[in-house]
Amino acid sequence: MFKYYVQLALSSIMRSKVHSLLTMLTIALGIGACTITLTLVSSMSANPIGHKSGQLFRVQLDNWDPNQAAISPDLPPEFVTWTDANNLVNAKQAKRQSASAITWGMVNPTEQGLTPFLALMRVTSKDFFPMFDVPFIYGTGWDESAEQNNDYVVVLSKETNQRVFNGVNSVGKTLTMLGATFTVVGVLDDWHMSPKFYDMSYGAFSAPEDIYLPLGLKAVFELPHGGITSCWKPIESQRYDAFLHSECINFQLWVELEDGEQKAQFNQYLTNYVTQQKTLGRFPRPLNNRLLDVTQWLEYKQVVKQDIQVMFWLSVMFLLVCLINAASLLSAKLHTKHSEIGLRRALGANFSQIILQYSVEIVFIGLCGGILGVLLAIFGLQGVASLYAGYGQLIELDLTVVTSVIALAVMGTIIAGLIPVYSACRPAPAMQIKQ
Q: Residues 6 or more apart from 363 whose CB is under 8 A from it?
């Protein structure tokens, strides 16, 4: 019997091709718009390291101008100075601690046929890799000795390793860059946190760096200050070390704390540290330390912008409007079938059989509209990725999002489509046949 209903549904759709196609397109437009915005919102608001987000904390210290807060009305800077970054990393008061900053430099591969290129780099601490669960395809990060001695070691991204060493295991090989020879100790696997919560200087969805090297080498090679750099008072001279020993901020500082007790202990350490620095003439503002975990940090940075949220609710409203329009089209189509319904009832078809017959047709129209809507969403997300740099990682459709939107559209179409069927079954069959 179900096969027969499918045949009836297809026959009905083919008899009114334009009407059925228009209904499918109406549903598809609503699903496409809603899926695009819901996918973006879901990706942008996702916690990229949810299993330990409550253990990772962004450290903020208020070393700013005594007469003006770094961030109105009374918030500390988001970054720390070179002095504080090194002091807190070397103190090792947390399970893990990592200071880092973006920089860049020339890479001069010695392999034949390769041309020099400018690489985006990150100077960081050895704890950066285990703290943020950075995956390795070859080797690992550098050890404590290499960090303390400022050894010339590097970790390469998978793309850089492919570019320079054709993707083979390059651990132990040398790479000429910054005018010196470095030894490769590790190669990352595919890794792109989205949002890039640990450093959003170039955007919450910017690509990871090409090369990673120990933090101390920033001073050794006098590397450029990438990312966000800000100073509240003039630097004493133009010398590079004058910037490093100034109150200018440029470094991300994260710590890993396993529980509330460790967090309380680290908070007390920060209080003691700032108090000690005040005796040295630093930190002129009142005590104002902050520790924000990953979730709190993402909320503070407002990764999901208000205009995106407004667009999402507008797309939901647009989907509802499309479903209402689709329901009107279905109602107009089914209104012409009153006599057919009456004839089937007169021949013995009961209410449930009639409902099932037209439900098959309505579900088929809804599913076709849903599939077409997903195709529109795929093209739409690719358009977003091409128009806005950094959103390339957001173009993958989430199966849960797609399933939910299609289910909502199909259910809405069924409910709206069966209303006229129910109305058509109320009059007596004789009256319907006569009319």
A: 410, 413, 414
Q: Is 304 a residue whose pLDDT tops 80?
A: no
Question: 233 pLDDT exceeds 60?
Answer: yes
Highest mean pLDDT among 46-50, 305-309, 337-341, 420-424: 46-50
Cα–Cα distance for residue pair 195/49, rounded to 1 Å: 10
pLDDT in the model for residue 158: 95
Percent residues over pLDDT 70 in the chain: 83
Token pair 């795929």: residue: 378
What mean pLDDT is predicted for residues 242-260?
95
103 bridge partner residues: 121
Q: Are 186 and 156 in contact (CB under 8 A)?
A: yes
Element (H, E) at 76: none
Q: Over the range 65-100, which residues count as b (16 or more CB within 10 Å of their CB) and which as e?
A: eeeebbeeeeebbbbbbbbbbbebbeeebbbbbbbb
Helix (H) / strand (E) containing 119: strand 117-124
d(CA 353, CA 348): 10
CA proximity to 253, closest of 123, 406, 383, 374: 123
In which element (H, E) is residue 181 found?
strand 180-188
Find residue 249's DSSP bridge partners.
81, 230
Instruction: Indicate the helix (H) or strand (E) that contains 204.
Output: none
Distances (CA, A) of 83 to 89, 143, 334: 10, 22, 75
Angle between helices 351-387 and 338-346 (to 10 degrees): 140
Q: Which amino acid is located at 391 in the chain?
A: Y
- At 315 the pLDDT is 77
CA dist 373 and 42 (Å) reads 18
What is the average per-residue pLDDT within 414-426? 67
Contacts of 81 (CB under 8 A, 6+ apart): 63, 246, 247, 248, 249, 250, 251
Whether the CB-CB separation of 230 and 130 falls below 8 Å is answered with no
Other CB atoms within a 10 A radius of the CB of residue 275 amount to: 11
pLDDT in tens, 283-295: 999 999 999 999 8
Determine the pLDDT at residue 110: 80
Query: What DSSP letter does each residue of 244-276 carry, written as one string?
Result: HTSS-EEEEEEEE--SHHHHHHHHHHHHHHHHH
pLDDT tens digits for range 384-413: 766 555 555 555 666 777 777 777 777 777
**H helical segments located in 182-222:** 217-220
